[in-house]
Specification:
This protein is mainly alpha-helical. It is built from 13 helices and two strands, in the order H-H-H-H-H-H-H-E-E-H-H-H-H-H-H. The protein folds into two domains: about 120 residues, no CATH class; about 100 residues, no CATH class. Helix 3 crosses helix 10 and helix 4 crosses helix 7.
Length: about 250
């Protein structure tokens, strides 16, 4: 399944993939899918987000709606589409609609006559109001990255991959990675086992060590903040339990 096909699936049933209308959750889910394809040599249309092309496209769309937002955009610390969209749309569900509308338009511009070879047409920003299409040769790779290796990559550069120290962002990035492996037919037994068993294991371990009440519907993103308040330490706590899970079950 191509990256564009994934976006179309989420567009049809957003809450099947993301449990609420939140642009950053969507971003991290898409990024997880992207990382799997990138690190496992699946080259189709995944580079349409490359070099901030889509970010610039949405920035331009936002400024066309309201020119007065130019200064506000320049002041944003972030240069990502999930920061631009709320400037023109405050309703979370309509923010998703705006994203999908922009994605469809951008995809049409970038992937016209796309033939799924390593030669990709890319939409590049020249200056504030001008764009051009460039031909980019993708470097082929035989590198394969499984789920455990991906967690190791995330561990070393959390903010690079998920933007902030945030358990839900981490969760959706991981979910996107696992979903990609399943959809692309790459067997990763430990990823499947993690998906089925980690949350139960985590709850049992926490209840042994923490005097807290846990609802049956809660997962680690809701449980860890009950006894760890610092976001960075929350990520470290998740990784500590993940390592214990791996040591017990990855035989």
């Amino acid at each position: 399944m191509s990256y564009c096909e994934l976006v179309n699936k989420i567009k049809a049933e957003p809450l099947k993939y993301i449990d609420e209308y939140n642009l950053l959750y969507l971003r991290n889910y898409l990024d997880g899918y992207y990382y799997f394809k990138k690190y496992n040599g699946f080259f189709d249309d995944l580079l349409i987000f490359g070099d901030y092309c889509f970010n610039y496209f949405i920035q331009n769309k936002v400024m066309k709606i309201e020119n007065s937002l130019a200064k506000k955009i320049d002041c944003l610390g972030s240069r990502n589409w999930e920061s631009y969209i709320p400037l023109v749309e405050t309703d979370p569900e309509k923010q998703f609609d705006f994203f999908f509308e922009c994605f469809d338009e951008f995809k049409t511009l970038v992937l016209a006559d796309y033939d799924f070879t390593p030669l990709v047409r890319r939409f590049d920003k020249c200056d504030r109001d001008t764009y051009k299409l460039s031909l980019i040769k993708i470097k082929e790779t035989n590198i394969k990255t499984d789920f455990l290796q991906f967690i190791t990559i995330l561990r070393g550069r959390v903010c690079v991959y998920i933007g902030y120290y945030n358990l839900k962002y981490l969760k959706y990035c991981i979910n996107g990675f696992i979903y990609a492996s399943k959809e692309l037919g790459v067997i990763d037994n430990f990823a499947s086992f993690y998906e089925q068993k980690f949350n139960s294991f985590f709850k049992e371990e926490v209840l042994r060590n923490q005097n807290i009440n846990i609802d049956s519907e809660m997962d680690y993103t809701k449980i860890i903040p009950l006894f760890v308040t610092d976001p960075k330490k929350q990520i470290k706590t998740y990784l500590m339990y993940f390592d214990k899970f791996v040591s017990l079950y990855n035989k």
